[in-house]
Amino acid sequence: MSAFRWLLGALTLTLLAPSVEAWSEGYLSGAELTRLYNSGVFEAERMKQPLGSSSSMVGPFSHSGVRVTLADGSRWLIHKGQNFGISSQTVVVDARHMSSDWRVVKVRDFQGRKTVGDFVATGGSNYNFLFDNCHWASIRMMDQ
After folding, report:
1. 3 state SS of 125
2. Under 8 Å between Cβ of 44 and 68
3. What whole-number distance in Å separates Cα of residue 16 and Cα of residue 89?
4. Residues 84, 30, 10, 67: is their CA dihedral positive or negative?
5. What pLDDT is recorded for position 25?
6. What are the strands, taking DSSP E only, across the chain?
7. Cβ contact 67:98 at 8 Å
8. How would you class 49 by CB atoms within 10 Å of its CB: exposed for 0-12, middle for 13-18, buried for 19 or more?
9. What is the pLDDT of residues 2-29, one digit of tens each?
10. Degrees to nearest 5, angle at CA 83 with 100 and 42
11. What DSSP string describes 21-44?
């Protein structure tokens, strides 16, 4: 069973490569992507931002995700949306690209016990506006 999970994880990492931005610019290579997905998460912050020009952050008028901090101090936003990724609708982007509209809703210390890959898997690969959207995904990620 663990060999199957390893193969499934490796396949997922390979397919998600185009949706993860690099530390500097462009996209991560296979080795860099694997290192990122295997990195332990030390702090996770559930975050919300208003959609469009709205100042409201209620329900469908907002977008949510989880910003994670790794041991090296780097921060990454893991969030979900329709057509966000290629093989998965939960994607990872460098948090330096986040606008100032994002607000922290909840903070949790994971002490490196979960990896970035765990967060992406918990976010889920499919998107459904009512039953598996960014809000449900970010709640699941924080509760894992």
Report:
1. coil
2. yes
3. 10
4. negative
5. 47
6. 40-50, 62-70, 75-80, 90-94, 103-115
7. yes
8. middle
9. 444 443 443 343 333 333 443 344 467 8
10. 50
11. B-SSSSB--HHHHHHHHHSEEEEE
In this structure, are residues 64 and 46 in contact, taking their beta carbons and an 8 Å threshold?
yes
Task: Domain of residue 16: give its range.
Answer: 2-143
Q: Burial-class residue 42 by CB neighbours within 10 Å (0-12, 13-18, 19+).
A: middle
pLDDT digits (tens, 9 = 90+) for 62-118: 999 999 999 999 999 999 999 998 889 999 999 999 999 999 999 999 999 999 999
Give the integer Cα–Cα distance in Å for 2 and 130: 33
The pLDDT tens digits for 45-64 are 999 998 866 555 555 679 99
Counting the structural domains of the chain, the total is: 1
Quote the CA–CA distance of 87 and 18 in Å, as a whole number: 10
C-beta neighbour count of 32 within 10 angstroms: 14
Tokens 């329709």 correspond to 82
Q: Are 56 and 50 in contact (CB under 8 A)?
A: yes
Q: Taking the CA atoms of 35, 107, 25 and 50 in sequence, report the sign of the dihedral they define.
A: positive
DSSP 103: E
